[in-house]
Fold Probable transcriptional regulatory protein G6047_02655.
Amino acid sequence: MGRAFEFRKGRKMKRWAAMAKAFTRIGKDIVMAVKEGGPNPEANARLRAVIQNAKSANMPKENVERAIKKATDKDTANYKEVLFEGYAPHGIAILIETATDNNNRTVANIRSYFNKCNGTMGTQGSVEFMFDHTCNFRIPKEGLDPEELELELIDFGAEEVFEDEDGIHIYAPFGSFGAIQKELENRSIDILSSGFERIPQVTKELSEAQVADVEKLLEKIEEDDDVMNVYHTMQEA
């Protein structure tokens, strides 16, 4: 198994347990997708992907339809995707993906979390290079062989395909998302969920006390409503 498998296994143990928080994130994703490509999923690949993720998170269909309708309202604020970078205590790099309608508020909040937890907010590009930006898909296991599928999808950018109890997972570079999505749809393979992740190239092992220091900062950041995802270079237990 490769780095994507280990990364997924580590992240699956924790993070994003609150269903309401997941729904809030999906709602923002819907707004950004509709503002970018319109409200018709057939003509908007990004919106199709978000709707698949909503189903995977058991978000009620009426919530999804309401979010799409709201996003078409010209008075609905759009969200801007902003990346923040910095260091937690003990030299752990942190990369934060946000979706915000008020950048000044988000900057002030993120900076305050670093300051309160003995971290350092970095400049643009200070830690992003330490992470590989990837896309991923989760599809059903039935009738598919992961090894055969990996060989078939290499031409579309797939780098790692593996199976676990949740299905078959496909990982590829960020730029391969559209090609793989289209190929899976052409093959009539159900996409259960899809998305983007940043996988650390190298992780650092910490003591139990040091882990607690880093977790304190991570928890503060993750509780922020503007935060969509948080990635770090701390080795997961």
Residues 121 and 199 are 20 Å apart (CA to CA). The mean pLDDT is 92.
